[in-house]
Amino acid sequence: MKHGLILFAHGARAASWAAPFERLRDATQARTPDAEVVLAFLELMTPSLPDTVAAMVARGIDQVTVVPVFLGQGGHLLRDLPALCDTIRATHPGLHLDVVGAIGEDAGVQRAMADYCVAAASN
């Protein structure tokens, strides 16, 4: 089984907004050489999640994990992402698609952000 990992972010009008997500993608790819790691966006930027999955499927990837690079479970993750995933599953019935929780709700990520905040307060 070929595995793909999609870092799914909101998107923005300013191209520079994507820079930290690109660095996260590159760092993740370096640590997961057996998976293809790519970015996809909900809106305002490309590629979209459906386009990204279609491209991965065309390259023979049959297992995809979506990591929402959002701080919390707002409307986009509660409504928009499940609807997108339903469409993707209907379009690619042989694909195994998993979606994990928002990155910002992970305890380790929360600790890292708290460490950053504490360090900022110490300056």
From TrEMBL:
Keywords: Lyase, Metal-binding
InterPro entries for the chain: CbiX-like (IPR002762), Sirohydro_Cobaltochel/CbiX (IPR050963)
GO molecular function, one term: metal ion binding
Keyword hit for Transcription regulation: no
Domain of life: Bacteria
Name of this chain's protein: Cobalamin biosynthesis protein CbiX
Protein species of origin: Massilia aurea
